[in-house]
Automatic annotation (TrEMBL):
InterPro entries: DEAD-box_helicase_OB_fold, DNA/RNA_helicase_DEAH_CS, HA2_WH, Helicase-assoc_dom, Helicase_ATP-bd, Helicase_C-like, P-loop_NTPase. Residues 1-128 form the Helicase ATP-binding domain. Belongs to the DEAD box helicase family. DEAH subfamily. It comes from Nicotiana tabacum (Common tobacco). This is RNA helicase. The keyword Nucleotide-binding applies. GO terms for molecular function: ATP binding; hydrolase activity; RNA helicase activity. It comes from the Eukaryota.
Length: 597
């Protein structure tokens, strides 16, 4: 087989569909794809398989040498995602054992010489009988792009969302036909820009603009609007995250508006906080964005930053994700593949030792690693079997002892989906009222159980979802993911039991996985300020949580998001004594001074 990896799930689906169409074959037969929790391939027929880097890594757990593939193509390698860097390091090791394996590293903007040097270092030790090492070749393939004219602003913009909308309206007024692609940072910016564009177009009497969003958590039906032909006499404006920088072919784009920013994940191992922050893009990303305008005819790119900034201040390439991420999932994957010397692993870019040590500490506290930093049996190997964050996997294992596996795999499936709620602009009050119908005093995780129960009782009705502002496609996906988790738990010999409404057992299971994310309400706090127990960081409950303004004393959160404050998403109330039960050596000193005597 030929494997071709992409960094994003949406890109995998789009490219696989395009290749199947161009080869005139049915998707899922000769050409197929695999993403997490979705396999559209045929064991006997599939010869060209598209998949995410992460899925290929998981395949190595069953087939360490990837023996069913003769060619592996790592596409969009310049993005340097966490999974891409791990994959490149492992492919280098595999090629020592399989010199006949063809590896293609593909990208429009990657530093080809440094990547070739990585695969050609003196660390390749060969026995003489294995034959000579072939030098990596650097090939340049001419694209079919048209010329793109670049425009810059004279002065830095103070509000890039407003500047984006203003630029779109100017293009619509002054430029000939052709669709517009706008790059923004995330869903919030995109929603705000679409609302502002709609208001501005209505007030100025401008017609013919069709605004559509594009981001990773978008329901499938809304994604299809992006790829559908633009109605006659209209101009489509696609507001996208950096998901549209590469791989996705958006027909009809002639104009690009580049805000110059994207959302990037940054992890601080000292404070143990991972933030999704708005950060400037690199020159490599800027060139990719501009290139989107030259696919169908000569195009124009409007950059909302100065030419001087681009030339002298903008970084050439972005920071590889492995140097700014929490490495817990990365470490357990390598351990499961039998790589014990993590610090000595041959990385394309070395991660920080602090982040690596922090990951080892968390995994040790979870009972996943032993005193020699090897996977424990059976817990460590079982956690590695799940295609999930190790904290969620440990939560599932703990639920077996507490007799609430049925409830916990429902929660795990829901946490794997970006959101089960429909974000509807202008009706926040109605959405909040809908959430209250399912709200549980224990917190968001139990609220998810109530939503799932209601969906099943409605016979999986789309009308029920619409009435309750629940995303129907997301709930269908929750059911699919839940079935896969159910199969994995059964394969591991974990019994499926229900706690029959005992939410204390559910909360204890969640605490067993997420004890490291505990926070305590500050005494006499009037603004709902919490402090993390481990590192005393100031954090607040996110406004989307059912516990917002309730402010219970002790909580455990699923993730943090950073805007003007550090916000905790998906929180649940806990008893502080459960934290020391779950990880006594992790919390003993901190808890002694925190728990009221």
């Amino acid at each position: 087989m030929i494997a071709c990896t992409q960094p994003r799930r949406l890109a995998v689906q789009a490219v696989a569909s395009r290749v199947a169409e161009e080869m005139d074959v049915k998707l899922g037969e000769e050409v197929g794809y695999t993403i997490r929790f979705e396999d559209i391939t045929n064991e006997e027929l599939t010869r060209v398989k598209f998949l995410t880097d992460g899925v290929l890594l998981r395949e190595m757990m069953d087939d360490p040498l990837l023996s069913k593939y003769s060619v592996i193509m790592v596409d969009e390698a310049h993005e340097r995602s966490l999974s891409t860097d791990i994959l490149l390091g492992l492919l280098k090791k595999i090629q020592r054992r399989r010199p006949e394996l063809h590896i293609i590293i593909s990208s429009a903007t990657i530093e080809a010489k440094s990547m070739a040097a990585f695969f050609n270092t003196s660390k390749r030790r060969r026995d003489q009988e294995q034959g000579p090492i072939r030098e990596p070749a650097i090939l340049s393939v001419e694209g079919r792009g048209f010329n793109v004219e670049i425009f810059y602003v004279d002065d830095p913009v103070s509000d890039y969302v407003r500047a984006v909308v203003s630029t779109v309206l100017s293009i619509h007024d002054q430029e000939r036909t052709g669709d517009i692609l706008v790059f923004l940072t995330g869903q919030d910016d995109i929603d705000a820009a679409i609302q502002l564009l709609t208001e501005e177009a209505q007030s100025s009497g401008k017609q013919g603009l069709v605004a559509v969003p594009l981001y990773s958590g978008l329901p499938r039906a809304d994604q299809d609007l992006v790829f559908s032909p633009t109605p006659r006499g209209k101009r489509k404006v696609i507001f996208s995250t950096n998901i549209a920088e590469t791989s996705l072919t958006l027909e009809g784009i002639v104009y690009v508006v580049d805000s110059g920013f994207s959302k990037q994940r940054f992890y601080n191992p000292i404070s143990d906080i991972e933030n999704l922050v708005v950060a400037p893009i690199s020159k490599a990303s800027a060139r990719q964005r501009a290139g989107r305008a030259g696919r169908v005819r000569p195009g124009k790119c409007f950059r909302l930053y100065t030419e001087d900034y681009f030339a002298s201040e903008m970084p050439v390439v972005g920071i590889p994700e492995i140097q700014r991420s929490n490495l817990v999932s990365c470490v357990i994957q390598l351990k499961a593949l039998g790589i014990d010397n993590i610090l000595g692993f041959d990385w394309p870019a070395s991660p920080s030792p602090e982040a690596m040590i922090r990951a080892l500490e968390i995994l040790y506290s979870l009972g996943v690693l032993d005193d020699d930093a090897k996977l424990t049996s059976p817990t460590g190997f079982q956690v590695a079997e799940f295609p999930l964050d190790p904290l969620i996997s440990k939560m599932i294992l703990a639920s077996c002892e507490l007799g609430c596996t049925e409830e916990i795999i429902t929660i795990a499936a829901t946490l794997s989906i970006q959101s089960i709620w429909i974000p509807v602009r202008g009706v926040q009050k109605e959405l909040d009222e809908a959430k209250l119908r399912f709200a549980a005093a224990e917190g968001d995780h139990v609220t998810f159980l109530n939503v799932y129960k209601g969906f099943i009782q409605s016979n999986k009705s789309s009308k029920w979802c619409h009435k309750n502002f629940v995303n129907y496609h997301a709930m269908r996906k929750v059911i699919e993911v839940r079935e896969q988790l159910k199969r994995i738990t059964q394969r591991l010999g974990i019994g499926l039991k229900s706690c029959e409404g005992d939410m204390q057992a559910v909360r204890k299971a969640i605490t067993a996985g997420f004890f490291a994310n505990a926070s305590r309400l500050e005494p006499f706090s009037h603004n709902g300020m919490y402090k993390t127990v481990r590192t005393s960081q100031e954090v607040y409950i996110h406004p989307s949580s059912v516990l917002f303004r309730v402010n219970p004393k002790w909580i455990v959160y699923y993730s943090l998001v950073s805007t003007d404050r550090q916000y905790m998403r998906n929180v649940i109330t806990v008893d502080p004594s459960w934290l020391t039960e779950a990880a006594p050596h992790f919390y003993q000193k901190q808890m002694h001074s925190s728990i009221p005597q």
